[in-house]
């Protein structure tokens, strides 16, 4: 159960980071990255775009891997399944152990 919660929290963090990175990217109409595109920027415009693209791909792949990994850590509810199986088996055993009474057809009325 602890691994499931951990993976779920990691998926939520990756989703939030991916949303932020996508919003910062420069789109055709500008975007939030246009505010950071000044000539005095430390990394430069092209390096910023490359970094944002690589981080988007990395976060997307991380989200995919975490989603696939979450399948294996989902808590199983085998206790209920075993209980219902044992209950069904008990009913089958009771029905085999109970003697079968002779079946008598109800009397038919003749006119």
Overall radius of gyration: 32 Å
Which structural class do the helices and strands define?
mainly alpha
**Percent of residues in beta strands:** under 5%
Unreliably modeled segments: none
- Categorize the overall geometry: elongated
Question: Can you count the beta strands?
Answer: 0
Mean pLDDT: 77
Count of runs of 4 or more consecutive helical residues: 3
Quaternary state of this entry equals: single chain
Q: In this structure, how is the largest beta sheet organized?
A: none
Q: Note the run of SSEs as H and E.
A: HHH
Helix content: 55-70%
Distance between the termini: 71 Å
SSE topology:
Blueprint: H1 2-24, H2 45-73, H3 78-97
Helix pairs in contact: 1-2
Structure description:
This protein has 111 residues and is mostly helical. It has a domain at 1-18 and 42-74. The protein is 65% helix and 0% strand. The chain has 3 helices and no strands. It has helices spanning 2-24, 45-73, 78-97. α1 (2-24) runs antiparallel to α2 (45-73). It is elongated and about 100 Å long. The model has no long low-confidence stretch (mean pLDDT 77).
Sum up the structure in keywords.
111 residues, elongated, mainly alpha
Gist?
The chain is mostly helical and 111 residues long.
């Amino acid at each position: 159960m602890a691994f499931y919660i951990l993976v779920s929290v990691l998926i939520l963090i990756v989703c939030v980071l991916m949303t932020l990175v996508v919003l910062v990217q420069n789109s055709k109409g500008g975007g939030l990255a246009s505010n950071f595109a000044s000539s005095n920027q430390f990394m430069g415009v092209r390096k910023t775009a490359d970094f944002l693209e690589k981080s988007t791909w990395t976060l997307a792949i991380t989200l995919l891997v975490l989603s696939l990994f979450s399948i294996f850590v989902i808590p199983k509810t085998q206790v209920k399944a075993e209980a219902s199986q044992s209950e069904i088996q008990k009913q089958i055993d009771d029905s085999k152990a109970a003697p079968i009474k002779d079946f008598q057809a109800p009397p038919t009325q003749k006119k």
